[in-house]
Amino acid sequence: MRLKHRAACLLSRGGRSMKRLFVIILAVVALLPANAAGARKIRVVATIPDLADMARRVGGDLVEVTSLATGVENIHAVPMKPSFAVLLNRADVVVLMGLEAEHAFLPGLLEAAVNPRIGRDAPGYIDCSVYVTPLEVPTRIDRALGDIHPMGNPHFNFDPVLGKAMVRAIADGLSRNYPEDAAIFRRNAAAYTETLDAWIARWQREAAPLKGKTLVSYHPDMVYFAERFGMVPFGTIEIRPGVDPTPSHVADLIERMRRAHVDVVARELSYPANLAATVAQETGAKLVELPSMAGGVPGGTDYISFVDYCVRTMVKAVTAG
After folding, report:
1. Closest CA to 292 of 57, 81, 49
2. Residue 100 confidence (pLDDT)
3. Residue 212: in which H helix or E strand, if any?
4. Is 246 exposed, middle or buried (CB count within 10 Å of its CB: 0-12, 13-18, 19+)?
5. Are residues 269 and 188 located together in one domain of the fold?
6. What gap in Å lies between CA 239 and CA 9, rounded to an integer?
């Protein structure tokens, strides 16, 4: 009953039909035994496909993994669905990016789910930022200014070296909750990390043409990619993270880009296309369109293919005649 009430409050803006749907889903789920689908696996809910892929690699046959996002969304604004609260209510662990990346949807869903196993301070709350030193940590935290990166930049999934830190956090989190299987998780994590190391060496070679190239992105989620592969961030089309550009800001940015001969404008696919195209056209920069997580494009369905797509697409742009 508490779950139904909290979920109804959470989804009050969705109207009566949404509430009725949610209650029906809960009623059906409540009638199912925990092992209705067969052998009991660890139920993992990840916020984005990158983390879901990593959790499957680390957990192997011991886990059943679901991602809340599909890969095409803005991580700061993943739409909330009644089914998400149900998934979280039944989850054994939740895996998230952290650094407030999911601030717009995850806290409310966790409150609606009423699952003490995965609350913010619970063992089942696996924060993948724990081994990451964030970039762009603000000196002043003020949500009133519209900044949605109050703990620093949370888009570290663009850096495959930090991808290894994410894998480590997941292995630690699963081991903390299921110590009897810790050896399996750590062995799987080590194998996946070795695979990532081989890909990282390849990407470093292939990304050599990116060194020194200047970059403007729509949202500041390319800074980890830029730092890893030697690019130079020049600015963003947004005024601040999450704050839409004004005409004066765009005009000033274009003028500064022309003087500096900026090489690339990167548009993350969940952000407006026309303005990024205009900025690139007005400045002579190459326009590159990239996903911000795995699943965002057909050629980047898992974490490795996501990073590979970003590297190949960026290199193709800067080396084109």
Report:
1. 49
2. 94
3. none
4. exposed
5. no
6. 33
Is residue 226 located within the same domain as residue 131? no
195-232 pLDDT, tens digit each: 999 999 999 999 999 999 999 999 999 999 999 999 99
Cα–Cα distance for residue pair 71/87, rounded to 1 Å? 18
Decide if 70 contacts 48 (C-beta within 8 A): no
What per-residue confidence (pLDDT) applies to 143?
A: 58
Check whether residue 95 and residue 234 sit in a common domain. Answer: no
Q: What is the DSSP letter of 285?
A: P
Note down the domain range covering 171: 42-138+145-202
Residue 122: strand, helix, or coil: coil
Pair 48, 294: CB distance under 8 Å: yes
Q: Does residue 198 share a domain with residue 211?
A: no
Whether 20 is covered by a domain: the verdict is no
Q: Domain tally for the chain?
A: 2
> In this structure, what are the phi and psi dihedrals at residue 252, rounded to the nearest 5 degrees?
-65, -40
How does pLDDT run across 18-45, given as a tens digit for each residue? 445 444 444 444 444 444 444 689 999 9
Q: Are residues 261 and 174 in the same domain?
A: no
Helices (H) and strands (E) in the chain — how many of each? 11, 8
Rounded distance between C-alpha atoms, residue 48 and residue 57, angstroms = 15
Cβ–Cβ < 8 Å for 306, 293: yes
pTM of the model: 0.88
CA–CA separation, 73 vs 50, rounded Å? 13
Same domain for 72 and 184, yes or no, is yes
Provide long-range contacts, Cβ within 8 A and 24+ apart, for 254-258: 254/279, 254/282, 254/283, 257/216, 257/283, 257/285, 258/282, 258/283, 258/284
